């Protein structure tokens, strides 16, 4: 084995990203818990972790940039570093999603608790499961596990569409519940975005491990390739 | 114009050392093909087989066929003719030290019987322009010797010398490894221009250089060609684990 220092640097980069992943996953779980028990002290924890996540995002990008500039990585090493940069951005956005949910929980705390026709806990459980699985696939370099995450995204998208439909109905028909319905809608939207970021992470793991670019696979399959027509 | 090179069942020996084993590959015309691999893997021996330089060593032997533009260079052509059609540039620039810049470029032409001064002038100018050296030496063509130029200029002079005899293929054995980064960039830019007119085969230890200049890349290891594919594929997602281990620096 040569380039021992470089290989150690790649390991260090992975460790840093795992710390970031741990914080982002914890943040989203806490935000969901804050919603479930309406506990503002948990919202404070989410806000605090966002600062740490943002700081780590910059540190990881800098470390990845240094490796690209100084080591000129190739093949699987190059794919790994590119994936780390993109997963890093997605994790930061998962942190933003957690913050968005905790902000809505804080707002809802001022309002009367009402029953709304949306199953936020179920949607949250699925989105959190996607985040957990995508990160597990990164830890284990397991492209097969990553592919299972891609199949889960449609379910979350469906729940988000259903939430939009039922909650806008509440807003129109029971306008006194509009503030609560709007907050719930924003939470559903944040969870849908978190699931999208988990999907992106899983796609990046597949690219790193197998070199396959699976992004937008379904959408692009139905559109002719403009380069192929030239 | 550059022509394609088809290599079939190529084997080469130095004495009892079987240094190239069953090499098969097709290098497309008017493209640059890079050959990479650790020292002693056989890549330089391979390019020396492409213009019958290998056999100049008395203990060396070659079997198999090499078709250059359809011509079997071992069966249907004499070595001198082969080396005119397939020029070579080496790691260390090797201009004729006592000759002027002009005479360095014209040397091959004179050996081939060219005597007309006007024709020689035209070819020397064209060759120096094609090697991106003309603007730097046009006022000193006959005043300065080849050895008076910088290392990078000497290497481009050697390229001009190779181009003067109108080859179809240009073999380059680590042409920039002894040059500074600016001279290296000039050689790489030159390779880009030259491949519109010639077929280029370049041996390099510099992965980034291979990635920058070549459309195709072959990876050699222990006298065998492990993988030959588009440069993009080799450097982003090679098929063979040994290729990946080499280009990522895990061995070699």
**Which runs of chain A of at least 5 residues are low in confidence (pLDDT < 50)?**
none
**Strands of the biggest beta sheet of chain B: in what spatial order?**
6-7-8-3-9-10
Give the amount of beta strand of chain B, in percent.
25-35%
What do the pLDDT scores of chain B average to? 94
Name the helicity range of chain A: over 70%
Q: Remind me, CATH topology of chain A? A: Methane Monooxygenase Hydroxylase, Chain G, domain 1
Which value, in Å, is the CA radius of gyration of chain A?
Answer: 20 Å
CATH superfamily name of chain B?
A: P-loop containing nucleotide triphosphate hydrolases
Strand content of chain A: under 5%
Unreliable spans of chain B are none
Word description of this protein:
- The complex is a heterodimer of chains A (230) and B (252).
- Chain A has 230 residues and is mostly helical.
- Chain A has a single domain, classed as Phosphate transport system protein phou homolog 2, domain 2 (Methane Monooxygenase Hydroxylase, Chain G, domain 1).
- In chain A, 83% of the residues lie in helices and 0% in strands.
- The longest helix of chain A has 35 residues, at 75-109.
- The N and C termini of chain A lie far apart (45 Å).
- The model of chain A has no long low-confidence stretch (mean pLDDT 93).
- Chain B has 252 residues and is of the alpha/beta class.
- Chain B has one domain: P-loop containing nucleotide triphosphate hydrolases (Rossmann fold).
- Chain B has helices spanning 43-50, 79-85, 101-111, 117-130, 134-137, 151-164, 181-194, 207-213, 231-236, 241-247; strands at residues 5-14, 17-27, 32-36, 60-68, 71-72, 86-89, 169-173, 199-203, 216-221, 224-230.
- In chain B, the strands form two sheets. Chain B has a six-stranded mixed β-sheet, with helices on both faces. Chain B has a four-stranded antiparallel β-sheet with strand order 2-1-4-5, covered by helices on one side.
- In chain B, helix 3 (101-111) runs parallel beside helix 6 (151-164).
- Chain B starts with a strand and ends in a 5-residue tail after the last helix.
- The model of chain B has no long low-confidence stretch (mean pLDDT 94).
- Chains A and B meet through helix 3 of A and helix 8 and helix 10 of B.
């Amino acid at each position: 084995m040569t380039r021992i220092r470089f290989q150690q640097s790649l390991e260090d980069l992975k460790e840093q990203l795992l710390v970031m992943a741990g914080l982002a996953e914890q943040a989203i779980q806490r935000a969901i818990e804050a919603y479930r028990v309406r506990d503002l002290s948990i919202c404070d924890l989410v806000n605090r972790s966002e600062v740490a996540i943002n700081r780590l995002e910059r540190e990881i990008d800098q470390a990845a940039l240094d490796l690209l500039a100084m080591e000129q990585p190739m093949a699987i090493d190059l794919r790994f570093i590119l994936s780390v940069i993109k997963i890093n951005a997605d994790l930061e956005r998962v942190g933003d999603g957690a913050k968005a949910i905790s902000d809505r929980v804080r707002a809802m705390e001022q309002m009367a608790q009402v029953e709304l026709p949306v199953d936020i806990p179920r949607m949250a459980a699925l989105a959190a499961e996607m985040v957990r699985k995508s990160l597990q696939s990164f830890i284990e370099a397991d492209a097969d596990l990553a592919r299972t995450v891609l199949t889960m995204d449609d379910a979350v998208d469906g729940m988000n569409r259903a939430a939009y439909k039922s909650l806008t109905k509440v807003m129109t028909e029971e306008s006194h519940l509009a503030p609560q319905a709007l907050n719930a809608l924003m939470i559903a939207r944040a969870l849908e975005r978190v699931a999208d970021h988990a999907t992106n992470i899983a796609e990046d793991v597949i690219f790193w491990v197998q070199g396959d670019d699976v992004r937008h696979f379904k959408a692009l399959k139905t559109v002719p390739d403009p380069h192929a027509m030239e | 114009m550059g022509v394609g090179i088809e290599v079939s069942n190529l084997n080469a020996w130095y004495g009892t050392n079987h240094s190239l084993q069953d090499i098969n590959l097709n290098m497309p015309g008017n493209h640059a093909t890079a050959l990479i691999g650790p020292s002693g893997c056989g890549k330089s021996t391979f390019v020396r087989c492409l213009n019958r330089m290998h056999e100049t060593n008395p203990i060396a032997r070659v079997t198999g066929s090499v078709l250059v533009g359809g011509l079997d260079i071992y069966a249907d052509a004499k070595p001198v003719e082969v080396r005119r059609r397939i020029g070579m540039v080496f790691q260390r620039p090797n201009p004729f030290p006592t000759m002027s810049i002009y005479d360095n470029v014209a040397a091959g032409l004179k050996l081939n019987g060219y005597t007309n001064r006007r024709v020689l002038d035209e070819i020397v100018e064209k060759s120096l322009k094609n090697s991106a050296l003309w603007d730097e030496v046009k006022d000193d063509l006959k005043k300065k010797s080849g050895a008076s130029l910088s290392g990078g200029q000497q290497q481009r002079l050697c390229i001009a010398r190779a181009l003067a005899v109108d080859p179809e293929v240009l073999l380059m054995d680590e042409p920039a490894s002894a040059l500074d980064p600016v001279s290296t960039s000039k050689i790489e830019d030159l390779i880009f221009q030259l491949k519109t007119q010639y077929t280029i085969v370049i041996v390099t230890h510099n992965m980034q250089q291979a990635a920058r200049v070549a459309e195709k890349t072959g990876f050699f290891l222990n006298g065998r060609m492990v993988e030959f594919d588009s440069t993009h594929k080799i450097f982003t997602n090679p098929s063979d684990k040994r290729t990946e281990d080499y280009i990522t620096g895990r061995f070699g």
